[in-house]
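// run 5 | inverse folding | seed 20
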């Protein structure tokens, strides 16, 4: 919802491809290229090819996306070679983190611009839930970018997982899964002026104030018409936890107690 509203601002364009998982993919390929991590020539070549495949499948196999990938491969200094049992692939040398960071930063900028729904707009917005776990990696690549982390009540998140094909159907298992995910957010968190955390219930309670806070944080120009329209579209989500048996909800809250406390939610304030 917030991504959609932000991208309705006249200065902001969404990045196509839905949830791209590009930061996740970069974090997976990075150690394979890093001289101080897991670099071996063959593994680095195969990992880079897999990364390129993910980018094309996610953002589109366009000439612009291809050009961004070619620029990355060229920056890595990866000649195309034929490995035993493999097709011809770029073979990157081992590089340091200090060398990798600006290369992937330039790549992110160019490939997101290539996949922008409206490349004429100066601000780009990409939303993938796992981005919150890779803020430190993002900081290495794009030190000046800004991150908005939206947080919902952990019990509501856990309940939504039971309704997904990939989620645990059991309430307590879903709560444990959610607690682990929230813990990983906390471990990956970067507490600085370039990260803004917004609670969903606060946004619903004061949409105009919170949206303008987000706009100011992102350094977007004021736009009264956008703020009026966007704030009017925010509606409270249905609280499906009210239909749960009291004992089931209590067990979920017990599993989630630590995360609820860390993110400012009270166990007794079940409607938040």
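// decoded
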């Amino acid at each position: 919802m917030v991504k959609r509203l932000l991208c309705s601002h006249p200065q902001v364009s969404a990045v196509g491809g839905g949830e791209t998982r590009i930061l996740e993919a970069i974090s997976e390929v990075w150690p394979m290229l890093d001289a101080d991590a897991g670099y071996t020539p063959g593994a680095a070549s195969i990992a880079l090819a897999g990364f390129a495949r993910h980018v094309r499948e996610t953002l589109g196999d366009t000439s612009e996306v291809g050009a961004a990938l070619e620029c990355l491969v060229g920056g890595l200094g990866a000649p195309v070679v034929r490995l035993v049992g493999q097709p011809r692939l770029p073979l990157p040398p081992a590089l340091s983190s200090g060398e990798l960071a600006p290369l992937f930063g330039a790549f992110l900028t160019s490939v997101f611009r290539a996949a922008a729904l409206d490349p004429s707009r100066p601000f780009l917005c990409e939303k993938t839930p796992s981005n919150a776990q890779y803020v430190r990696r993002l900081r290495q690549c794009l030190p000046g970018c800004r991150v908005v982390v939206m947080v919902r009540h952990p019990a509501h998140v856990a309940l939504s997982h039971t309704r997904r094909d990939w989620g645990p159907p059991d309430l307590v298992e879903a709560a444990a899964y959610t607690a682990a995910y929230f813990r990983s957010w906390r471990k990956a968190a970067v507490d600085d002026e370039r990260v803004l955390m917004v609670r969903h219930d606060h946004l619903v309670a004061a949409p105009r104030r919170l949206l303008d806070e987000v706009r100011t944080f992102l350094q977007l120009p004021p736009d009264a018409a956008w703020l009026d329209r966007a704030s009017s579209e925010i509606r409270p989500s249905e609280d499906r936890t009210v239909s749960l048996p009291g004992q089931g909800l209590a067990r979920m809250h017990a599993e989630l107690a630590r995360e609820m406390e860390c993110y400012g939610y009270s166990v007794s304030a079940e409607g938040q």
